[in-house]
């Protein structure tokens, strides 16, 4: 399924926030790393800055991986060291990725004195460039985790959504979405939602598994819940069943499945949920 190409964000400030991460990884290494046979390419300012079969999955934490790229796979001249930001015994330095008059300083280069797991690799902030795996443009704040999957199943179980005791949606024409390590999400038939309670929020997020999501606010009895509902107009092929359906943020509303109120989110052992993981 084709996707529109969205311009990358160019981040050139707050590079100090990268230093603690670089220090931790250069000395202690990541949670895990793993090579991938995928062809990974990076597009910046309309030009390819790397094209490699040597990309590495690096888990900086337990939640999801990033792609790290060998430094020698970058096009000559596009990486510049940011003076005074690392090197020596630090095991890393901060760099600037530059093409023409566009640049980003959200780049870490791990040098020969870092631990072996990241030695010679480059971390480019995912949101600053356009990433491609083979010929597919990657969406979301990180690549897909090779050990996680999603499953979408049609379900006639009755799902009821309440806010402050008021029913805002109730449907038995649903798609249940199951994603590894995350709680189930219930995508309801749009015709079974009481639209008088909804208003567009303007928020957009990207998920590597499902695509671009658009959000609604919910307002009941004068109380407004921001970004309480999302939907995918053009989801990825693996999530095609949820197209045009509405999903209520379980953590913000009361969800009943076949008359049984859903358990507390804490029981799903999920430390946090951020937009882009929904």
Task: Tell me what the structure shows.
The protein folds into two domains: about 15-135, Metal Binding Protein, Guanine Nucleotide Exchange Factor, Chain A (Beta Complex); about 150-270, Beta Complex (Metal Binding Protein, Guanine Nucleotide Exchange Factor, Chain A). The chain contains one helix and 22 strands. The protein has one helix spanning about 20-30, and strands at about 30-35, 40-45, 45-50, 55-60, 65-70, 80-85, 90-100, 100-110, 120-125, 130-135, 135, 150-155, 160-165, 165-170, 175-180, 185-190, 200-205, 210-220, 225-230, 245-250, 255, 260. It has a seven-stranded antiparallel β-sheet, covered by helices on one side. It is elongated and about 60 Å long. It starts with 17 loop residues before the first helix and ends in a 17-residue tail after the last strand. The model is unreliable at about 1-15 and about 265-275 (pLDDT under 50).
Overall morphology: elongated
Proportion of helical residues: under 10%
Per CATH, the class of the largest domain reads Mainly Beta
Oligomer: single chain
CATH superfamily of the largest domain: Domain of unknown function (DUF427)
CATH topology of the largest domain: Metal Binding Protein, Guanine Nucleotide Exchange Factor, Chain A
Query: Based on DSSP secondary structure assignment, what is the total number of beta strands?
Result: 22
Whole-number count of domains: 2
What is the correct CATH architecture of the largest domain? Beta Complex
How would you sum up the major sheet? 7 strands, antiparallel
Given helix and strand content, the structural type is mainly beta
Please report which band the strand proportion falls in: under 5%, 5-15%, 15-25%, 25-35%, 35-45% or over 45%.
35-45%
Number of helices: 1
First and last CA, distance: 20 Å
The average pLDDT score comes to 88
- Secondary-structure element order, N to C: HEEEEEEEEEEEEEEEEEEEEEE
Spatial extent as radius of gyration: 21 Å
Task: List low-confidence stretches.
Answer: 1-13, 266-277
Question: What strand line-up does the widest sheet have?
Answer: 1-4-5-9-8-7-6
């Amino acid at each position: 399924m084709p996707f529109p190409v969205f311009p990358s964000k160019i981040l050139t400030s707050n590079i100090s926030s990268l230093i603690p991460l670089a220090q931790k990884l250069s000395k202690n290494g990541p949670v895990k790393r793993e090579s991938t046979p995928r062809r990974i390419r990076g597009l910046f300012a309309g030009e390819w800055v790397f094209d490699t079969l040597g990309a590495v999955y690096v888990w900086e934490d337990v939640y999801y991986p990033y792609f790290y790229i060998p430094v020698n796979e970058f096009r000559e001249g596009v990486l510049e060291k940011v003076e005074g930001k690392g090197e020596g015994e630090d095991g890393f330095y901060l760099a600037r990725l530059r093409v023409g008059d566009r640049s980003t300083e959200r780049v870490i280069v791990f040098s020969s004195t870092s631990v072996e797991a990241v030695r010679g690799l480059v971390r480019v902030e995912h949101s600053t460039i356009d990433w491609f795996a083979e010929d597919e443009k990657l969406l979301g704040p990180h690549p897909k985790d090779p050990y996680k999957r999603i499953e979408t199943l049609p379900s006639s179980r009755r799902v009821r959504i309440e806010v402050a005791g008021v029913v805002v949606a109730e449907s038995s024409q649903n798609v249940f979405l199951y994603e590894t390590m995350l709680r189930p999400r219930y995508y309801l038939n749009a015709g079974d939602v009481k639209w008088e309670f909804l208003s567009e929020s303007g928020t957009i997020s990207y998920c590597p598994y499902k695509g671009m999501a658009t959000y609604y606010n919910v307002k009941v009895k004068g109380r407004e819940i921001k970004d309480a509902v999302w939907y995918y107009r053009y989801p990825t092929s693996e999530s095609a069943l949820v197209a045009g359906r509405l999903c209520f943020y379980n953590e913000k509303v009361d969800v009943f499945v076949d008359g049984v109120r859903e358990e507390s989110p804490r029981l799903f052992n999920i430390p946090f949920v951020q937009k882009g993981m929904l």
